[in-house]
Amino acid sequence: MNVFEDLIGELKDANLLEETVIDVSRKSARAKGESADFAIERNDMPVIETAANETDFYRKRAMDEVSSLQMVEHVISGIEREYMKTVPTAHDDLQAKKALHRFLQVSGDPAAAEYAAAEYDLMKQTEIWYSALAARDSKSSVANLRRFCENSRPVLSSQALMALARFYRNSPYSESVRGKFEFVMTRLFSRDIGDEKRRLLFPRDEMLVHIKSLYANWSSISLFSPGEHEQEILHTVGRFEEKILEAGRAVTFGQLIQDDFFSRIRLIKESANEMFFVPEVVAAAMDCNVHVGNKFVDLIHADRKRSSIDAVVAKYGSEYDQAISQAAGKTLNLIELFGEHDAADRVSPVPQAQFTVTPPYASAEERSWKPAAGQRWDLFSVNKWLLAATVIIVALSLGVYLWANNYTADQKGINAARQVDLTGSKLGQYVRVAKATKQGFYAVTLPVWDSVPDDEKKQVLGEALKLAGTMEIEQVQFMNAKGRINGYASKNEIEIVANP
């Protein structure tokens, strides 16, 4: 039993809930000889059944509302704890549970005064709970919700996803709410088929039936009726269908990037505003999400076949991960997409043993190691970025070496550094070596410099500035043996730099 079923059980144990959809799924599964988990995982959408009477309808809706809020509470708390690194401030739902209990115990006559009072109290308590959840949810991102749902173990049940979808569908509109609703619905109406791909559970026309059934169960109010806004709805649906076709025609991932494909999908979703919740629009968006996500996986693997993993990662990196995840309604990370099974395909400059530093107490066999048969040194298999960094470091080291050893380039008119004789100067107590160019006077300090008071350091820098002045040099710079700056001096200022 997963955590959401435990929450439902908690309400039932307190006589606050009767039979739930989980129980129905289990009974149906047992009748067919299936496991309960499989029945839930099938994700069969509920259909609106005609209630035996008006009282039964309202009682079921009240129980669904409370259980849904408790599921949402659990998810938001998990996001706060695991991804926002904060202590969840869970809402005290005792009053809501008591209100539900009173509502279920009153007379079944909706016209009775006690019924109206119990119904009003339940509505007030669930509204308080809902408002508290909405305030906490507004502080988390769509990416937080995606990561929590995708990484949750055990996997979130269909009932939990429906509770989240209900929560966001009936929330005041914002782009964050729309994005979270889109993700939850896409996950609810699709299933993982491996290799980071998903498939829709139903054809588009069947999805419409299920979405409308859910909206009716949730008492969701639409601002857009098909009759009055039919052309606008059809236009938005058509834009999603165009993107499905465009993705299907793409030959390379680079082509989609060049055409700004993912940004254009994002603009379609954002410009839809509250029309996004229209069943026809959200069904088209989910269809587009699954197609785009699967196409991205195919294109990246096609690029991988034409070159190495390192080449693909170096070309695209993680720059487009967020845009792709938004367009696909799921988290897609290019670097993680290849998985551990492709690790052997990554570029290995030399055999692993060649990177092992031989300790002084190594055996004769370790000291005389040679590549095994079939192994060879291959300079050109080295990662190009590592090679470039090595070349730059060597060049800089050579430059410092030439400067330190007074190599000059008089034939090119380059001003070489010349060593300064500190004999008889006070600077010799603090400076190991000093050199000068037309641009400045440079000195490397002795360890004693660190223990000298700042006032005395400024006096020494002043002495160095006077000495530099005799050579028509206007700037002085002191540094320690590690190359960290210790102080500056010029005719305008003298500054001490503290180093840890």
Q: Which characteristics define this entry?
A:
two-stranded antiparallel ribbon, 6-stranded mixed sheet, 55% helix, alpha+beta, 500 residues, single chain
End-to-end CA span: 56 Å
Largest sheet at a glance? 6 strands, mixed
* Overall radius of gyration: 35 Å
- Class based on secondary structure composition and strand pairing: alpha+beta
Quaternary state of the chains: single chain
Structure characterization notes:
The two termini are 56 Å apart. The strands form two sheets. A six-stranded mixed beta sheet has the order 3-4-5-6-7-8, covered by helices on one side. The chain has a two-stranded antiparallel sheet with strand order 1-2. It is 55% helix and 7% strand. The protein is an alpha+beta fold and 500 residues long.
SSE order and pairing:
Layout: H1 3-13, H2 21-32, H3 36-41, H4 54-82, H5 94-105, H6 113-137, H7 142-151, H8 158-169, H9 175-188, E1 190-194, E2 197-200, H10 204-217, H11 230-249, H12 253-258, H13 261-272, H14 279-306, H15 309-316, H16 321-328, H17 334-337, H18 364-367, H19 384-404, E3 418-419, E4 431-436, E5 441-445, H20 454-470, E6 475-479, E7 485-490, E8 494-496
Parallel strand pairs: 5-6
Antiparallel strand pairs: 1-2, 3-4, 4-5, 6-7, 7-8
Quickly describe the structure.
The protein is α+β, with helices and mostly antiparallel strands. The protein contains 20 helices and eight strands.
